[in-house]
């Protein structure tokens, strides 16, 4: 498995398995199948409601803990966020049944961001989270966190796919030692991604996934989700070929520069996500 080195020296697999929108009752089997296919990076979140199922699959797999890289995420917390975030982290850890996570991400750039980050720095110092980072932070918010806190986020997980390539974000993250991670790498099939003529032609030429290979060649960590073991195997089979420079340019031309889901800077979305709270 190809890895990337985070800014604190930790190795992270460049390809992992995400469980967003997988119902809890299907998650354990999906993660079990993913681990059997060779995945070692698992990505969940408190907001997904399936941390316990991920933990059961990890426990029953028999795979040594040091061979796995487990990520979960902190949902929006009110002040005093240092106390609330600590409790939320401990809840996630208990649901996972682990003594540490490899990466803990702030899921949204809302709420008491700095109180949340201080709590995350604390669990990082204690070794309970080997690395900490953020998700859905645009460059201005990310740079603000970098400049005004002790620990620079190790990762920023953001919407990234051929139609929203995040080149400016990518360059800023590279300049500040933050690892770019993609969510929504397949854009959930929007804009006819799976039948797009450019992507289909490139994929057919290699008989592989053009999208995942494109992300990996940009040194972007990606976490495709599927409940199909066959698709898991197909997604994992992307390390024995490379896209040509011409093919990379062809995909670069697909960038629209805008989200296909929603904008985290949209006032309506800010209000909706900021007000949502999880049951603890």
What does it look like?
The longest helix is centred in the N-terminal third of the chain and has 16 residues, at 81-96. The protein has 11 helices and 10 strands. Helix content is 41%, strand content 13%. The protein is globular. It has one domain: TIM Barrel (Alpha-Beta Barrel). The strands form 2 sheets. The chain has an 8-stranded parallel beta sheet with strand order 3-4-5-6-7-8-9-10. The chain starts with a strand and ends in a 5-residue tail after the last helix. It is an alpha/beta fold and 280 residues long.
Number of domains: 1
* CATH second-level architecture: Alpha-Beta Barrel
How much of the polypeptide forms β-strand, as a percent range?
5-15%
Radius of gyration: 18 Å
Spell out the key features of this protein.
280 residues; alpha/beta; TIM Barrel; eight-stranded parallel beta sheet; two-stranded antiparallel sheet
